[in-house]
Design goal:
Helix content: 25-40%
Structural class: alpha/beta
CATH class of the largest domain: Alpha Beta
Radius of gyration: 23 Å
Order of helices and strands: EHEHHHEEEHEHHHHEE
Bound molecules: S-adenosylmethionine
CATH architecture of the largest domain: 3-Layer(aba) Sandwich
Strand content: 15-25%
Length: 292
């Protein structure tokens, strides 16, 4: 790693007591700025099971994770300028997401015993029977994965991808191209990517027109909490407190899907049998992977 002031190396040979003390030491929140390296000879020392009492699975990794989290939390407690504190907070957040994703990757094979599968990506609380429901933050998802990272699904193993109001959470420069590359890789030929996003044409057309039906719907449904002026609503649509990273209309979405390599791209109507009812104003599009 090379980033820490102190490196603690523990040989596990006959080291039950030493290992326990060392492990408890590194979890101690008063310690900081060090790494903990556990050296196991794989034959006799059985470090994994000795560390099991600290976490059910993957104990050495769990300890490293808790050390990393502790270091980042300590950084946050330091008197740092605003920018550095925010960057540390973001780093801790990303580290925790990485840990969640890594656990999801380990669990993925359980959902891949019968192929092809159907993926509901960014499912949130809207889960679909017979689909593998994937989300990074929602604890009720079948699999918690960060879709900005490599997807743990084999090539051509997915017959359909559905994603409602998640695609706008990815940035256009890196994350959208990654998402679409992975979608094309895992879809079998002829497989469909069915995507719903907020339709940005609506708020833009309504701006400056207080009588536009859009404002009545947004207010009645409480879609943009804390917004009063039309521009506050527009800002919310675009940014949603930093969660939204790109705004889509039909022309732009179709162009990005085609440029990514999807063969047939077509807008479709909202389908109440398939789509969440509160998403009725969405832009809905289907893109198909070419059959070769
Ligand atoms: C607005 S919710 C949509 C939930 C549901 N599909 C719907 O239509 O109501 C967006 C979802 O995307 C998920 N999400 C955001 N970034 C993600 C990422 N990097 N990887 C996986 N899921 C993510 C969020 O956790 C959230 O549940």
């Amino acid at each position: 790693m090379g980033l820490f002031l102190v490196s603690v190396e523990v040989s596990v040979l006959n080291g039950d007591r030493c290992l326990r003390e060392a492990a408890e030491g590194v979890i101690d929140p008063s310690l900081r700025d060090f790494e903990f390296v556990i050296i196991e000879d794989d034959l006799t020392d059985d470090a994994d099971s000795r560390l099991d009492c600290y976490q059910d699975h993957d104990a050495p990794t769990a300890i490293k994770d808790s050390v990393m989290s502790q270091l980042l939390k300590n950084l946050l407690k330091e008197r740092m300028p605003y920018g550095l504190r925010e960057a540390s907070r973001e780093l801790l957040h990303e580290w925790n997401l990485f840990c969640v994703h890594r656990r999801g990757v380990k669990e993925a094979p359980r959902f891949l015993q019968v192929l092809p599968v159907k993926l509901n990506l960014g499912c949130g609380p809207v889960r679909k029977d017979g689909w593998v429901n994937v989300d990074l933050f929602d604890r009720g998802a079948d699999l918690r994965l960060d879709l900005r990272a490599p997807w743990p699904f084999p090539d051509n193993s997915v017959s359909r991808i559905y994603s409602s109001h998640a695609f706008e959470h990815f940035d256009i420069a890196q994350e959208v191209p990654h998402f679409l590359r992975e979608a094309l890789r895992v879809l079998e030929p002829g497989g469909m990517f069915d995507v719903l996003v907020p339709d940005t044409v609506r708020p833009l057309k309504a701006y400056g027109d207080p009588s536009a039906a859009y404002w009545a719907i947004v207010l009645a449904r409480g879609w943009h909490p804390g917004c009063h002026t039309q521009l506050e609503h527009i800002n919310y649509h675009f940014r949603q407190n930093g969660e939204h990273k790109y705004a889509w209309d039909a022309e732009t979405l179709a162009r990005v899907l085609k440029n990514a390599g999807f063969a047939a791209v077509a807008q479709r109507d909202f389908d109440p049998t398939m789509d969440p009812p509160e998403r009725f104003l969405s832009l809905c599009m289907v893109a198909t992977k070419e059959i070769q």
